[in-house]
Task: inverse folding
């Protein structure tokens, strides 16, 4: 029987939520990595039993854990992230030059073809790869070394590489996003990189159309149309139809184009989801109403999805990695909130219900279609 | 022999880990390490015995103690002592434990 496994990273541990394809009755695991902050965990597309997790904490640093039984048990693997080369310091919040130093993993992206290969986006922003199932990690130094790294500046959350998108049609092409630097593309499997930020306009930087310096929050693409990328920027929802060579705004009639996550329907390349947030001052939904917005036109025209979501007195946020879609025939959409709720819509966003309501603040949501 | 000096066979250094690190190492009680006589030696031996603890007490690249980790023994804070200084004799004799402590901080 088909089903789904939802992997939830929270401020205090991780949880695995499982259901059959109806997605009505859920089993909730005991806390995994209790007390650790789990920025992200994600399963291998080619081996669903293989799950990588990135617990960390201010006391004992970063560990990486791997499951080979679908998230029931985990074992520590390698956690030695050493930078290669020195592109020169970056400018910190204090305006002073800062040497690069590893602090934590923000995102793990398993390979689309090899369960032993996994990428890690880390703070200070860099891209690492393991080809031995997490036992050891090597930086792909071409990203920091391509020339713009000295101009990157940390966002409020730090100088972090938080998004890694692999092109399913081209094993040489991958995308990353760094806050606050922008989006980057590699066409040689991560060896060399260049910024892809033409068309982005950001009021918070001296040159609004600079090559780098943009606070990109999240990228998404649909496997059937990999040339088309969607971006939730700090402000603005953007779209590219040429693999990031140029971008145009598709915020359209959204009530706010500030937000964090963005995702694409599993079977409809033009159906896109965002969660508008009032502003970067008020990290809560407009009017205290939690609404996912769906565009069926690839952006521009958006409809609020409210059925089953709180429409008053709701002041939670939805973070960048806290939305996912499953690949069942009736594609499910999932998101988690800083209030500890994880919502599921088994009908593409038409209706929602909470799988759980009282987890620690949710940092990430991923789903495996089994 | 001076007072407090070590003589004869030692039972080993008794290391008490905080809960997070016990879970990570998969141990329930103390970890007894035979051989190390310095703080660096204890950490080296601890990480050899339990590789999952690498990077949790000290940075793997720099070797520096993580800011919120402390090392206590004999009612003293050894965190700022030279890492190659000999540990107190009661620790080496196994009479007193070597405590790895996560600082009281956070929420």
Result:
């Amino acid at each position: 029987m088909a089903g789904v496994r939802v992997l939830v990273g929270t401020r205090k541990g991780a949880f695995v939520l499982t259901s059959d394809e109806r997605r009505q009755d859920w089993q909730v695991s005991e806390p995994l990595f209790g007390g650790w902050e789990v920025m992200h965990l994600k399963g291998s597309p080619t081996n669903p039993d293989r799950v990588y997790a990135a617990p960390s904490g201010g006391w004992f640093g970063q560990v990486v854990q791997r499951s080979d039984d679908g998230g029931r048990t985990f074992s520590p693997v390698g956690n030695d992230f050493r930078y290669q080369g020195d592109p020169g310091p970056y400018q910190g919040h204090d305006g002073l030059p800062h040497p690069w130093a590893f602090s934590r993993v923000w995102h793990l992206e398993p390979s689309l073809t090899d369960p032993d290969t996994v990428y890690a986006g880390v703070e200070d922003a860099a891209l690492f790869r393991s080809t031995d199932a997490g036992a050891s990690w090597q930086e792909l130094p071409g990203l920091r070394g391509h020339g713009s790294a000295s101009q990157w500046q940390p966002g409020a959350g730090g100088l972090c590489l938080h998004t890694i998108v692999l092109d399913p049609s081209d094993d040489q092409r991958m995308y990353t996003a760094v806050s606050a630097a922008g989006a980057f593309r590699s066409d040689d499997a991560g060896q060399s990189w260049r910024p892809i930020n033409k068309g982005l306009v950001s009021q918070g930087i001296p040159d609004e159309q600079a090559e780098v310096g943009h606070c990109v929050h999240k990228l998404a693409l649909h496997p059937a149309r990999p040339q088309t990328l969607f971006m939730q920027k700090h402000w603005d929802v953007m779209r590219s139809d040429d693999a990031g060579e140029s971008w145009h705004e598709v915020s359209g009639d959204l009530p706010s184009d500030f937000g964090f996550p963005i995702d694409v329907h599993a079977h409809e390349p033009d159906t896109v989801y965002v969660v508008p947030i009032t502003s970067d001052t008020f990290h809560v939904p407009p009017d205290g109403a939690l609404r996912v917005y769906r565009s069926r036109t690839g952006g521009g025209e958006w409809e609020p999805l409210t059925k089953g979501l709180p429409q008053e007195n709701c002041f939670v946020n939805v973070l960048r990695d806290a939305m996912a879609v499953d690949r069942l025939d009736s594609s499910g959409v999932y998101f988690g909130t800083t209030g500890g709720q994880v919502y599921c819509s088994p009908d593409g966003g038409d209706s929602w219900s909470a799988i759980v309501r009282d987890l620690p603040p949710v940092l990430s949501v991923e789903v495996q279609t089994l | 022999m001076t007072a407090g000096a070590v003589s004869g066979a030692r039972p080993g250094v008794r290391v008490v880990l905080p809960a997070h690190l016990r879970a990570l190492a998969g141990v329930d009680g103390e970890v007894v390490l035979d051989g190390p006589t310095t703080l660096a030696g204890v950490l080296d031996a601890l990480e050899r015995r339990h590789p999952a603890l690498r990077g949790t007490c000290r940075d793997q690249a720099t070797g520096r103690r993580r800011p919120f980790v402390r090392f206590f023994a004999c009612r003293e804070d050894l965190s700022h002592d030279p890492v190659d200084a000999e540990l107190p004799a009661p620790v080496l004799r196994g009479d007193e434990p070597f405590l790895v402590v996560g600082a009281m901080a956070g929420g």
